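Handout, section B. The chain below has 854 residues.
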Amino acid sequence: MGSLFRSETMCLAQLFLQSGTAYECLSALGEKGLVQFRDLNQNVSSFQRKFVGEVKRCEELERILAYLVQEINRADIPLPEGETSPPAPPLKQVLEMQEQLQKLEVELREVTKNKEKLRKNLLELIEYTHMLRVTKTFVKRNVEFEPTYEEFPPLENDSLLDYSCMQRLGAKLGFVSGLINQGKVEAFEKMLWRVCKGYTIVTYAELDEPLEDPETGEVIKWYVFLISFWGEQIGHKVKKICDCYHCHVYPYPNTAEERKEIQEGLNTRIQDLYTVLHKTEDYLRQVLCKAAESVYSHVIQVKKMKAIYHMLNMCSFDVTNKCLIAEVWCPEADLHDLRRALQEGSRESGATIPSFMNTIPTKETPPTLIRTNKFTEGFQNIVDAYGVGSYREVNPALFTIVTFPFLFAVMFGDFGHGFVMFLFALLLVLNENHPRLNQSQEILRMFFNGRYILLLMGLFSVYTGLIYNDCFSKSVNLFGSGWNVSAMYSSGHAPAERGKVVLWNDTIVRRSRVLQLDPSVPGVFQGPYPFGIDPIWNLATNRLTFLNSFKMKMSVILGIIHMTFGVILGIFNHLHFRKKFNIYLVSVPELLFMLCIFGYLIFMIIYKWLVYSAETSRVAPSILIEFINMFLFPASETNGLYSGQEHVQRLLLAVTALSVPVLFLGKPLFLLWLHNGRSCFGVSRSGYTLIRKESEEEVSLLGSQDIEEGNNQMEDGCREMTCEEFNFGEILMTQVIHSIEYCLGCISNTASYLRLWALSLAHAQLSDVLWTMLVRVGLRVDTTYGVLLLLPVIALFAVLTIFILLIMEGLSAFLHAIRLHWVEFQNKFYVGAGTKFVPFSFRLLSSKFSDDMA
């Protein structure tokens, strides 16, 4: 595993792949995930690249596999997902696999089509039987008149108003019967009346049970209708209206014998269709079960094959078109594995000429690779969300592992809440290999991916909860309080001591609502609590005042230390990139500005804690007043914290005032001096750097002459920059803006760390409110009903604690901790302008069927 402190050293390698071995070599590289390919055909359209035909073939195979997965899921056949990923198929098996899948698709489509056709016929026959059953009661025609007349004699010479003609029409009725959707009945009837002008008789009846529509497959309610009409023209109109409303029209029998024959024939055909349909479904299920056994491996193989051809499209051919040339970024530590992968690919293809590689120098900035494991991945994701680190700069994730959960715990300090969070995270860690957790919903998966962050956050919250002595807003007396109440009684002291201090007696104890412990009285304060805050403060009325003072000062101390540490980390960046002038002209003035003002504030806080005791606390000066007087230079002398304080403060202000112009003008003037042909020892550049015309600092460093000899010949070429590209005004403005932002940021960022105090106070008070409103009420009820009331009260308290204090307050503290790291800490040294190393790896391919269907 590479170092987490800084990204790994990368190199640009050139791969020479023989045309016959390129596929196998890239397959071996994809299994190992060692390199990131560069696109050498950026100016070539995607449709004009060499292997676009192979990519289309893979897409066609993906389409066939998606169809197979869809049919398998429709048949409720479980899809097996193998634990091991099959390798990419050899080129000899690709055509064979394509033929098998195409043949299987054709067979499935044909069987499915026949099945749907049989099913549609079956549904139509069932509808026909229901229609015959219902319409049997509609019209009872006289059998003796039915065979003596033609169905539709010509009507050209007859007048519709003639009585004899109407008599003839009455004997020559026509019928249309069928089924119509329930929602269309009213509109259908109105249309028949308007078009046919009343020359129709419509009879309806609703079916007892809903039927499945043969066209759409929906189960809906149907109405059976029977339309009686006169005349052939009206009959055509009726049939057109039925087609318009998508009615299912079936022939209506003329006689009872014909109805009986049709009914018997329908029953026989329905039984035959049931038999054929069951056999078809059994055969289709057999085919799908056989296909399901190999569909997982085929999906993975096609994905790998498509990824290989995508990478091959990024390669270029040599002059002879016999060799593929690829450029890849590779960590220097993996060069040996890269050569071995190329040898394995050449050996598998059976080529006589093996593929090989060599490293090439470059002026481009490589991508950033920081190797992580399941523990450090979550913290690295927090840093990468701000910005991927620049190449080889200090990685904040190493320190975020400690500082992030600690700052969270400062705001979330409660032993009980932290322990619950720790148990939840520990449960996720112990069951991290459970398949249901890996395939859970998005919210639970988010908790699962950050399980180690939650684990440390809970563990640190337990620690800070012990420091605050808070457990569900109550204090725990583990070691015994350091305060002695009985020592305040006057009976326990000599008469000489009674006149010096205010002591208690029985009258004061009975009449006073509030009693004050005086630590200056001998025997009252016996020493500090061994670990954390004394539990007696939980009973004090001035508890909030005491805790506010403690937490506010603690927040300032932690914030200044955190920001100072960020400035120190910037020195490591300057040393690595061999910009020592940045240390003297940027980092040192920044440290002096920070420490001479805010570092001195920490000194005064700690000095007052150590020097002044309970006896001398009344004469102790205010730190806030002393810190303000440091800048105002009051005319009257003050007591001060120590002797010579005024001289020390003036010296610190003088150093601060001198560091500001150095911070503003030092770096621009130095770069101008370098640009004018001077030389400076200790300034050099090695490794990979990004050369941009708009970067004036780079131009000045790589200006008219070499500052120091580099490690390779490419550095000499990088330094050959023209003098016209140096712009002193732009450098000066950039540095001035950076300096103003830093100086003002030291003040605003220090104030921003007071959120540690504010959120800790809010969390403690909200926890106390929940306890007071729920648990205390349940505990104060008498014993008769107290037990019955206490159980639902505790349940409600647990629910509100989880949802309000753990989830909502925890999310708030989490977001504030992220802000403190991104804005207050990382901006002191972290640029975050790099590009992430994305290797060509088959492990990044999804193996889920749901993703394939999407």
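Note. Residues 141-171, 679-696, 702-724, 850-854 have pLDDT under 50 and may be disordered. Compare this with the example in section A.
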